[in-house]
Amino acid sequence: MTKFKRPSGRKLDEPRKIEAEAGVIKKADGSARFKIGDTEAYAAVYGPRDLHPKFLQNPKTGILRCNYSMMPFSGDGTRVRPGPSRRSKEISMVTEKALTQVLDLKDYPNAVVDVFIELPQTDAGSRCAGICAASIALADAGIKMKDMIPAVSIGKIKDFLVVDLDGDEEHLDDNEAADIPIAMIPSTEEITLLQMDGIISKKDLKDALKLVKPSLIKIAEVQRTALKKKYEVEGEK
Amino acid sequence: MSELIAKDREVVVPGQIVAKGMDFLPSQGTYRNKENVIANRLGILSVDGKVLKTMPLAGRYMPKKDDTIIGKVIDILVSGWRFDINSPYSAVLPLKDASFDYIARGADLTKYFGLEDYAIVKITNVTSQNLVDLTVKGQGLRRLRGGRIIKVNCHKVPRIIGKQGSMVSLIKDATNCKIVVGQNGWIWLQGEPEMETLVYKAIKLIERESHTKGLTDRVKELLNNKGGKK
Asked: How much is the pTM?
């Protein structure tokens, strides 16, 4: 097999440069910024707080409510129209499901934890960046969660599996390209998000899941460092 | 062989392995996954012999029985008042716990507590569904008139109060202000306007640097420099 060179010059299993920061929105109960390459997500957590409308309340546990939104000027301008869309609704839902798995909201019956995710700039992998930011923000808000949730995409371009596709790579191979966003609980290696756009064989999918794990663990480490850093800086004063 | 991985008083984050082996016991804020004891919330690790706990650094106030807190009236009900207590849940002050006077049926309840009034109240009961009951019958419990309210993170309250109230007494003595610290992170203070500002600065300093050493000295320094009584 010939060697494949990624347009960005990265190795096949190398994610883009990652930056993370906790506590960026002062008035929120918890907040975070997560940047991977040119995709940047902000997440703010409010709550637990009173849940309205009342019929959504669950007397057994608190619930998580996510809201994903790309800012109108983000991306390359083709996909974005201001306001909610079918796509943002779907991503809000999968984000909610990816994060709920680690949360323990039993102490907050009838309440809600609201997570707002905004993306000022996107270049593929926005739902993953959103989940990463939301995970840091939830921990920053002091919500009980058994682990962080890192997320990243893996794809197949020209018969090669590559981690963390950027916008250029997504459009490289029109026929057989696949893009698979994945979120995982690092301590148990359980997968909480797995979607796919494109075509991939069963064998390739299994290989992809193996290949992506080190990147996810690396992201979880970045998330934890970001949280600790918030308190280190204050401590050194 | 058991091994403690994180240090005592270290900031730990969800999913961080704090100890390995069966000799350590998980408690509040930690859980066991096979051999590992893992933190499940952001906090400061506290090692008490074999028991590993995390003290929360963030999060909303959760009402607890017998806490003395400051609340704000948000609604007047048929037989009581609903209070905002800076928590995910609101609390109810029933008529019978509102005053030593007899309150007749149909009386004007705003005479006792009007909308947006603040009061020092005590929690008498919290149910499993977090319905909260309050009382103002008790020492020091009353409706607040004048002064101002400042809001802080409720997890910093123990540090603001200090050991046996040492920190808050320090501020009170230096500024001649009346200060009441509610467990829910709302603080009422009343005094000379300049002194109120000084108290505000001192409390915000404690909130910001609550997890560091030598805090009392820094608070003293602030109070002395800014013209508090020595």
From this structure: 0.93
